[in-house]
Amino acid sequence: MRCLATGTWLILGALLAAPGQAAEPSEVPTVHALALYGAPGLPDGYDHLPYANPEAPKGGSLIRAAVGSYDSTNPFIVRGTPASGLTLVYDTLLEANADEPFTMYGLLAGGIRLDPDRRWVEFDLRPAARFHDGEPVEASDVVFSFETLTQKGQPFYGAYYSDVTSVTAVDQDTVRFELGESESRELPLILGQMPILPQHYWAERDFTAVTRDALLGSGPYRIAEVDPGRRIVYERVPDYWGKDVPVNRGRHNIDRLVFDYYRDQTVALEAFKAGNLDMRMENSASNWATAYDFPALNNGFVTQLTVPDGQPAGMQAYVMNLRRAKFQDRKVRQAINLAFDFPWLNKNLFYGAYERTDSYFENSEMEATGLPSEAELALLEPHRDELPEAVFSESLPMATPEAMRPRLSEALALLRDAGYEARDGAMINTETGAPLSVEILLYSTQFERIAQPLLRNLKRLGIDGNVRTVDVNQYLNRLRSFDFDIVVGSFPQSANPGNEQRDFWGSEYADQPQSRNLIGLADPTIDDLVDRLIAADSRVALDTAAQALDRVLRWGFYVIPQFHLSAHRIALWDKFAWQEPFPRYTLDLEAWWVDPDRGADIESRQRSR
Fold first, then answer.
1. Cα-based angle 457, 560, 288 (whole degrees, multiple of 5)
2. Is the pLDDT of residue 19 over 60?
3. What b/e string do you get for 212-246 counting C-beta neighbours within 10 Å, with b at 16 or more?
């Protein structure tokens, strides 16, 4: 890591502290950034992120769509449906560079000291840091934020920061986190992602209550307008304390950010075409191929942009709820998997735009392939008695028929082995006499046409299925209480997965409302593999642990993997500008700006429509 005082890269090891003994802060160099592996890509004294333009003009507006409704401006609690974009209001200790796999640079924190044995980390706050009311951001605010989020916030925060044993304000500008012995290499970095809340603001307020107030933060934007269910507006803070911090220079350029709410994506698309929205992230392959043939695009006022996404594709899937007895049998889950006909969907609905997802770490070195390596086996062998034999003896990707007839024949055999038999066209549990049925819970009608082919194939197996589409608020309430058979779930992955895996798969979150363990997994083997992944001390060890976890999850058939596209599809009115090349790993719209000349012309045309 780089020492701020000398600019020399130092190896933090046993020279600084005896093994197992935490070093003193005075023995540890203060650095400007932390990288998960290796050294930060930008040196101390860097001017700006490589994809930001420090000369970008300020001004203009960006209007986007949000679907459904909202009733809260507090995004951190279990209760309520939060508005879109609320994180814009808050600063964090550190900020990521989207051009690196996982490196965090100082934002609120101007200096960082990390114990060579990773037993503690200290952050020095910038003296200039201010909340929007002019009050300074102090170490006590960081302590308050940690304690409030982990004790009163969504379960995610407790999972994410579970290995922190204590946090203290060393002085007004220095905060220290004591880290447990879990060997979580990423923990110091993800502490830097924590939003910092103003203690003085919340002193007389109930943090757990739903509110529509314009909450106070220290970030580049503040809430300017709250109209629940219709829109929320953010305005750029002109005297934002952090505008010249290197990680911010050339970013946060647009004056007004607006999220207008629509009932569904179909209505939002028409609003975009009418000029009521400036930008649209298009998730529908059919729309991308056919829905953008309209005069504004043909005349060059609207453009379609495809931006590569360098992150692993992650897993979007139909998630089966293990809390329901009918999904407890692995053979039943595998049979339902076999009824999913991706080739038909891709040809007939998606215009060949997608690839089938196989892995929870798709498009990365963390994806399990072939038979387990020796390194994987070292992690898997202690659990051999609890795992399916296929984990050890069969290659990935799985060898399954492509044609539906042999797939359904295989599925039928699995259902019979699981204790079901066909009676009068229905698949009946021979022990209970109950028919096997499934319900897919959705909040958007757009996905219904994608679900129907799966239900038709399940019907051929004698499994009765239906789609239930509800409004967003009802959907979220049912999701929070795990009141569903099957939902469309997403388990996004970064190039460096870590503590969030506990929230995805950990036993302690299986029955915790609003956790991201939608499946309801409570498996000691998976818990152990997640711990191994978090404790990985090298890139090779991380890849191996992820491969072992991926292999176990895939042979469990807990979800029905869907499809992915390794790019962002963006339709936009042609008033925006950006720096190229785009960042290698994630899209950063905060580095875009409105071109003054084109912006005025486009906005004039939008108003005249």
1. 85
2. no
3. bebbbbbbbbbbeebeeeebbbbbbbeebbbbebb
CA-based nearest residue to 281, from 260, 264, 293, 265: 265
- Residue 397: is the preceding peptide bond cis (ω within 30°)? yes
Rounded to two decimals, the pTM is 0.83
Q: Is the dihedral of CA 468, 472, 476, 477 positive or negative?
A: negative
Residue 341 clears pLDDT 50, i.e. is over it: yes
Output the six-digit token pair for 199. 């203690």
SS3 content of the chain, % helix, strand, coil (to 5): 30, 20, 50
- Judge whether residue 589 has pLDDT over 50: yes
pLDDT number for residue 21: 60
Segment among 406-420, 565-579, 591-605 with least mean pLDDT:
591-605
List phi, psi (to 5°) of 358. Answer: -110, -40
DSSP string, 164-184: EEEEEEEETTEEEEEE-SS--
Sign of the CA dihedral with 273 first, then 277, 279, and 281 last: negative
- With beta carbons less than 8 A apart as the criterion, state whether 383 and 525 touch: yes
Extended strands (E) in 492-574? 559-561, 563-564, 567-573
The answer to whether 128 and 241 have CB atoms below 8 angstroms apart is yes
Q: Environment class of residue 567 by beta-carbon count within 10 Å: exposed (0-12), middle (13-18) or buried (19+)?
A: middle
Q: Which residues face 96 on adjacent strands? A: 104
| DSSP designation for 17 | S
Q: Which residue has the tokens 């900020």?
A: 95
Q: Are 81 and 473 in contact (CB under 8 A)?
A: yes
d(CA 602, CA 596): 10
